[in-house]
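Deliverable D4.2, example record:
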Amino acid sequence: MKTVRISRDAVDGLLSSLLKRSPNNYDSYTETVNEIVNRVRQSGDEAVFAYTKQFDGFELTPETIQVTEAEIQEACDSIGEEMMGVITRAAQNIRTYHEKQRQYSWFDSKPDGSILGQKVTPLSRVGVYVPGGKAAYPSSVLMNILPAKVAGVEEVIMVTPPGKDGKVNPGTLAAARIAGADRIYKVGGAQAVAALAFGTRTIPKVDKIVGPGNIFVALAKKAVYGFVSIDSIAGPSEILVIADETANPRYVAADLLSQAEHDELASAILVTTSETLAEQVSKEIDGFVAKLSRKDILQKSLDNYGYILIADSLDEAVDIANEIASEHLEIVTANPFEVMTRIRNAGAIFMGEYSSEPLGDYFAGPNHVLPTNGTAKFFSPLSVDDFIKKSSIIYYSKEALTPVKDDIITFARSESLTAHANSIEVRFEKQGE
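Output generated by the structure prediction step:
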């Protein structure tokens, strides 16, 4: 990891480096993705089956595209009772957390005969993309399906790529059953996103697509946005740790590596007020990397996007954390709750030395689908809010409209919208008002 003292030039260079990882910068893949999306839109299942054979090595048919109940049961049996128990307990924590996010319709009536309100309605059908192969994460299944179910979505359609044998990762299927997926299809990549967005003979069209994926999936979601809603265009994972001299360097090093192992493009940043801690963390990281299984990925991630930043004060550390706006932010200081009050931009905030990032990835309850690449400045974690829509409710009696009609007419005419003004005026013309 590179160790530098914070300066304006250092910060600008770091931000520039991190932003290069954004999916918005992978234009070389856009043409290929658009071709896949357009072909699926035009040819439906025929294109989906062809791309699945080309990219996944499995020949789908209308009879084999949907995962059967027998396949799901086989998956649950194969992972064993212990793992089923773990997934079930994690799911309960996630469900309980998201139940507190529920929103309800409200109405406000006044004595003048007016009623204003907001009607909250869950989306009808949502598509959840789940990666396959080496990137199969049952935890992501829980994090994407459960908020939708808590929101009241009528039907959750899950898509995930099959292996060459036509099977789906058993942990993924087990998590889907526990979370409550209604239908599961053996389709992955950009072709799965397009199928969800436009519908095919076998895969129904959805209202929104959520879930992580590779660059082809991310760009496909970008391409279909507008035809359907999406959660976000997610970039590589990232973690930032704010630590002072009280932090345990071994814990900090382990937490930084917990995200660096995801991807060669993942970033791991320590911002500390202690040069001694910086040196200790660097040594601990070297020791961990030498023995961890994903050594090559870890090393490339750290070489390219691993930083230890030395701050002159905790205030400066907080400022740089807000500027970077990391997906995951850990605060390991003498008073983490006080520091937390000054954080404006972060996807998820972990406080104290026993609140390591994997706690949030798997078990605590808050969603691990988080804004990346600085978008925590204006985006939030995936939540129940992502699976509802709101309609404004307006009711005025004649008695309520009468005292404000002239204001509306004046406003409309000031914008040269005479039909708007007329719409109000006709309601009073019989009275000669």
